[in-house]
Structure formats: structure tokens, C-alpha cells
Amino acid sequence: MAASDSVSSRAIAPEEVDRLFSGLGGYRKLAVAVSGGADSLALMVLLAEWRRRTPGAPELAILTVDHGLRPEAAAETEMVAELARAQWLECRILTWTGEKPLANRQAQAREARFALMTRALAEEGGDALILAHHLDDQAETFLLRLARGSGVYGLAAMAPVATREGIAILRPLLGVAKERLVASLAERGIAWCEDPSNADPAYARVRMRRLMSDLAAEGLTPQRLARTASRLSRAASALDCWLHDVLARHAEVHPAGPVRVPLSALQDLPEEVLLRLVSHLLTRVGAQAYPPRVEKLERLIGELAQAEGAQATLCGAVVRRTASALAVWREHGRVSPEPLRAQAPGSWVWDGRFAVSMTTLDRLEVLAFADARRRDGGVASLVPPAGWPAQAF
Question: CA dihedral defined by 73, 102, 167, 78, rounded to 10 degrees?
Fold first, then answer.
């Protein structure tokens, strides 16, 4: 654990904290992701202080994860819980169990952490999950995506308010430099943990972080990079308005999930809008958390332009150009999604796409059409709707 000896930047004042968290007042209960590092500990402490002086502020539930990847991880989560109790906050320690990956550990741990926290969020009855991403994180994300050749959406980096897999994600500190979060802890005499992987050059983000001082000397400061990301986010929002207008006026969504859009509605669209529209359809129909890479999307569009009947697969979805439309449907994998079975009222999301609610029935089963066809001969006789590719059902 470490505490800063000398911090050049000023700590975040209460009135600035009030502005940063002013958008949180409409929530009833929020979960806060805390790792024990300086960023998330500062977020937790600032939120706790804000809540104590703000009438009607939401409840806070602190969530911290023991990934089991380092010997000191358990002690770090206990430290988070102890500090949370000192701030009069409830804290849950979540544990990542099972076999741990040997490769791509950071990404796998990130996915496991998100899964654990979203489950806990639902159990707590929370409205959203708050993350401690800050201005320096935003600048690094912009550079990493620039290095990958990302388009407008990727270079927009992280949004202050976003949704992932139906979960609201809030990032109120995106405009705050890391050193100010460190200064806020130092001012209060609060120590934090240092994860050695954050200094390991095996990770691209660490290597990019080490370039930041040289880039800043050339004018590419974190502030300017984050500002550029914000402007690109504004451009991405304009594209979203355009594509959603096209979809609202022309897209036909079948209750079973497939979507089709007339070619006549697509032929005069600017290339960027067409790319984003197809990306949106692939992501939604394929039930993906993230959109496809730009280069893969460009390649797919090129394949579809070749001829009528052209077909391609991406993001767990199939796209086919018919004589009159672009049709998109979920790729039928070798393994069907797990059936949803319920014997009590409730609400669920099945196959990452369908919102299912049961209020009056005493039994419910939802399963893939292919599975239903194997079990019920009557289902096998159903004819696909006219005008749709038979493979879509």
C-alpha cells in the first residue's frame, strides 16, 4: 500500500464534487465498483461525503472483487471493506472462483468482474453501476483505439453514461485528472493499493501510459486527447440520430428476432452512416456487448456489395442481401441457448435479446426454435413467413 508524499495538484473541493455528482440525484440506489486502487477509493470516499451532505442522495452499495490472481488480493478487498465501513457504507466482497486463465488475464478478469458486479447489482436492487474511470483513462483509451485504427465510435472512447447488457454504467470522473484523485486521498491521509500489473509493460495500456509525458510535450496532453474524444462522441451521436431515423422509418423487426431493411432505404446513405447502421444491426441481433471492428465491418459491406444473394457472418449474426432488402438474423450455432424455465412470476432476458415477463402463468419455458422442432412435430410444420430467408427461423 502507498500514500503520496508530494502531490502537485489540488484535491477536489466539495463544491466541485457536488457538480460532478449532480446527475446522480435521480437514482434510488447505486453500486460502486472499488478495487482498492487510488482511483476507485477516491470515488468511494467522495461519494460517501457527498451523500452525507446531500438530502435525498441515493443509497450506495460498495462492490469489490477478489480475483484470486495475487496473494495479496484478499487483504486488499478486506481493506476496501474496512474503509467502506468507516464511511458508513455497506460493502460486499465478491470472489471470482474456478480455474483462472493463463493468457489474456486482464481481459478475462475484467469480464469476470463485470459479471460478478452486475449479478450483485441485481441482488442489491441497484439502478446503475458507477466506475472510477478518469481523464487519464480516457486519453489512454483514445490512443489505444487510435493505434487500432478505430473509427468515430471507437475514438469517442468512454461515455459518461452508457448501457452494457442492459446495465446502466456511470462514469462521473471522466473529466478529472488522476493526480487530483490521488491528491484527494492524500489530503485525507488515506492509503491505497498498487496493482503491480499496472506497471507491467507486457500490457499495451501500460506502454501507452509511459508515452504520455512525451506526447504531452508535443501538445498531446490528456486534457486535449480527452477533449478530442468528447468531440468525436458528439459526431457519433449525430450519426446515431441519422441511423435511428432510417431504422424507425424503414426497418421491419420480426417478433422472432430477424430484421430486414429495404435496399432502397440504404442505397443513398453516406458510407459512414451505412457502416454504423449495419454495425448496430449486427450488435443488436447478435446480442453482442461490443460492435465489430471497423475493418471487419468494411470487409463485410464489400462482400455484400458483390451480388444479390451475397451473405456474410459477423458478431454472431448473419447478413444476407436479397433482391429487395438487407436481412439480418441470429447465427444458429452448434449449441442452442440454454432454455429459460420458470415456475414463479418474474422478468428475465433470454438469449441476450428477448425481454421475458411472467405474471399470471404458473409455468413458463422459452427455448430455441430448433430445440422446439425436435420436441414437437407440430412446430416442424410451421412455414417461415413470406419474404424472409427461411434460414432466419
Answer: -10
What crossing angle do the helices spanning 222-250 and 271-285 adopt, rounded to 10°?
80
- Strand, helix or coil at 66? strand
Type of residue at 198: N
The answer to whether 79 and 36 are in contact (CB under 8 A) is: yes
Q: 30 with 92, same domain?
A: yes
Residues 274 and 347 in one domain: no
Cell numbers linked to 369: 426454435
Question: Model confidence over 287-310: pLDDT tens digits?
Answer: 888 899 999 999 999 999 988 899
**Do 166 and 32 fall within a single domain?**
yes
3-state SS, residue 346: strand
Determine the length of the chain.
393
Number of domains in the chain: 3
Other Cβ atoms less than 10 A from the Cβ of 48: the count is 19
d(CA 35, CA 195): 9
User: Is the pLDDT confidence value at 6 over 60?
Assistant: no
Backbone angles phi, psi at 129, to 5 degrees: -110, 125
Q: How confident is the model at residue 3 (pLDDT cuts 50, 70, 90)?
A: very low
Can you tell me the mean pLDDT for 65-87?
93
- Per the CB < 8 A criterion, the answer to whether 184 and 12 are in contact is yes
Query: What is the domain range of residue 58?
Result: 14-228
Q: How far apart are the first and last CA of the chain?
A: 56
Q: Domain check: are 124 and 259 in the same one? A: no
Cell of 212: 504520455
Give residues with Cβ within 8 angstroms of 268, minimum separation 6.
Answer: none
The domain that holds 302 is classified in CATH as 1.20.59
Sequence-ordered alpha helix ranges (H) in 218-292 = 222-250, 263-266, 271-285
Mean pLDDT score, 361-388 = 77
Residue 83: is it exposed, middle or buried by C-beta count within 10 angstroms (0-12/13-18/19+)?
Answer: buried
List for the chain the helix, strand, coil content (%; round to 5). Answer: 45, 20, 35
Residues 201 and 251 placed together within one structural domain of the fold: no
- The continuous run of DSSP H or E covering 152 comes out as helix 152-155
